[in-house]
């Protein structure tokens, strides 16, 4: 499984053999069972992870209500960005919605690899750019559009998500209650 993440990094930039050897020593493969937490609010996110197989949901609590902020699946990078880079506890919960396999790299190891191997900085930059690109699409499509448009964005661009995510989570992700989502779906 480590070969999958190394192949992904190599697709961005050919890695020196020494870096590959270090990654093989430092990357940890974890199996999360459905409903198992990768991160809980109030904890520091110590790992950047890449999803090899499965699906996770990120959410925070607003009063007592869970508000879904993102879904991430195969080939996505996952961490609490605020917590990982500030080294402070965050408000984000990250939980597996399916049995999920991830490849993780500890913050300290990542920083060490950036210093030791300049080409790996390029890999990190490309991954960060992809993450920011996806966030901008999400902000525009899921926060600035009408409720029905937000739903149809998912239908048109991420149809597999509709089969993998419970509607109650999809509703909070789209910024609506379950009843509104049900009415929109009934109009199809």
Task: Give a quick summary of the entry.
51% of the residues lie in helices and 24% in strands.
Task: List its salient traits.
four-stranded antiparallel beta sheet; Jelly Rolls; alpha+beta; 188 residues
Explain what the structure shows:
This protein is an alpha+beta fold. It has two domains: 2-126, Sandwich (Jelly Rolls), CATH 2.60.120.10; 145-188, no CATH class. It contains nine helices and eight strands. It has helices spanning 2-12, 17-26, 81-86, 107-116, 118-143, 147-157, 159-164, 167-173, 178-186; strands at residues 28-32, 37-39, 47-53, 55-62, 65-73, 77-78, 93-96, 100-106. A four-stranded antiparallel sheet has the order 1-8-3-6. A four-stranded antiparallel sheet has the order 2-7-4-5. Strand 4 and strand 5 form a beta hairpin. The longest helix is centred in the last third of the chain and has 26 residues, at 118-143. The radius of gyration is 18 Å and the shape is elongated. The chain starts with a helix and ends with a helix.
**Fourth-level CATH superfamily of the largest domain:** Jelly Rolls
Mean pLDDT: 92
Elements, N to C (H/E): HHEEEEEEHEEHHHHHH
Report how far apart the termini are. Answer: 41 Å
Shape-level CATH architecture of the largest domain:
Sandwich
Describe the secondary structure blueprint for this structure.
Layout: H1 2-12, H2 17-26, E1 28-32, E2 37-39, E3 47-53, E4 55-62, E5 65-73, E6 77-78, H3 81-86, E7 93-96, E8 100-106, H4 107-116, H5 118-143, H6 147-157, H7 159-164, H8 167-173, H9 178-186
Antiparallel strand pairs: 1-8, 2-7, 3-6, 3-8, 4-5, 4-7
Helix pairs in contact: 4-5
């Amino acid at each position: 499984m480590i070969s999958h993440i190394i192949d992904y990094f190599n697709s961005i930039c050919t890695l020196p053999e020494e870096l590959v050897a270090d990654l093989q020593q430092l990357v940890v493969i974890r199996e999360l069972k459905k409903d198992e937490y990768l991160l809980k609010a109030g904890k520091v996110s110590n790992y950047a992870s890449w999803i090899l197989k499965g699906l996770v949901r990120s959410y925070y609590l607003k009063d007592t209500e869970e508000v879904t902020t993102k879904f991430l699946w195969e080939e996505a990078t996952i961490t609490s960005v605020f917590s990982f880079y500030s080294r402070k506890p965050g408000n984000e919960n990250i939980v597996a919605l399916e049995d999920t396999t991830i490849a993780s790299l500890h913050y300290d190891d990542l920083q060490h690899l950036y210093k030791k191997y300049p080409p790996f900085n390029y890999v990190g930059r490309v991954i960060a750019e992809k993450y920011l690109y996806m966030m901008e699409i999400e902000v525009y499509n899921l926060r600035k559009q009408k409720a029905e448009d937000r739903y149809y964005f998912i239908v048109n661009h991420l149809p597999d998500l509709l089969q993998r995510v419970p509607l109650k989570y999809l509703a909070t992700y789209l910024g609506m209650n379950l009843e509104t989502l049900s009415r929109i779906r009934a109009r199809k």
